[in-house]
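## tool: complex_structure
## caller: assistant
## args:
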Amino acid sequence: MVFHVDFKSGKPVYLQLVDQVRYAAASGALRPGDLLPSIRPLAEELRVNRNTVAKAYTELESRGIIETAAGKGCFLKENDSPLNKQVRHKLLVARIDEAVVTAYQMQVGPEVLRGLVDERIQFFDRKKAGTQPGSESDPQEKEQIWTPTNPSSTFPISADVMENWTPSTD
Amino acid sequence: MVFHVDFKSGKPVYLQLVDQVRYAAASGALRPGDLLPSIRPLAEELRVNRNTVAKAYTELESRGIIETAAGKGCFLKENDSPLNKQVRHKLLVARIDEAVVTAYQMQVGPEVLRGLVDERIQFFDRKKAGTQPGSESDPQEKEQIWTPTNPSSTFPISADVMENWTPSTD
DNA sequence: TCTACTGTCCTATTGTCATAGGACAGATTG
DNA sequence: CAATCTGTCCTATGACAATAGGACAGTAGA
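## result:
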């Protein structure tokens, strides 16, 4: 698992790390039981304070995504949210609604939206299938995890998106 | 269009207003050309500073969602984002990925996710159909717009979700 | 033109977030 | 036990976001 941070993105570093772990777990690049990098070395590698990494890990633990033990390290947990079913459903619907509304404003119709959703579901599932124990091909492929481009849900949009800004027209 | 703010949500008031307009536009509760409440009266009604409302409107204008004219007021624009196609696509995929990853962590499988997406697409489309000129049934229904429950993409999750928290198990 | 409405700009204050370093505590290894 | 890993807690600080009030500017209608 290779982490990286973008200081120009405007997004807090600790949230960048949180999302990288979340996405890695969802895509199968990280599997339950996997040991995450320990705080201090990772902080040094990324040139950030160790508390920034610690904050990310704390956040992940509070979301039930990792398990942490002083003296041992941090491990990816089995995928089970600490939230009850009703709350999980509510949380998910909120994200879906956000995507649906965004699709409307991005002038993407329902059919195309459904297609994109399918595409992204497959994108994550395909990666997971490729990392099941016993079916690994190239060990290095496990390192090639994908990271979110603009995980922040609020404007101002991130730098890499702004680079492609044009005043109007398609 | 009825606005309301939740001061306990932890989400900035101006963003709450932005999302309410976004969602109202996507659902058809607000239609192009519609006049939005003017800044001062709305601020007074919501018990917030006028600059808070003004900031929301500025944000909406920068996203190409409303048009504003000093001395006249703010109007909902025709739906056309100022971003180019590539950027719009990128932004949308980011939201979709966020939903897909959330689904994974909420232990919702691909089939159920697809079903939920369909459901929410229809939810917004059905409202839009009901507000097309010439097909209105109950005028009061136009005021009954839906507002997002937890549009914030980051923990801590909003108060209304926390109320339903339980330590574990479905 | 006068009044009353509209939105805009400038500046100040407040609070919180993100980050940082020092000191502490549990676990492992030799 | 000593050394060295691991994560944790406490406190401080800098920056920025969110909100607020005063003064200004464009528009409409009597």
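## assistant note: Residues 85-105 of chain A form the longest helix (21 residues). The longest strand of chain A covers residues 66-69. Handing back to user.
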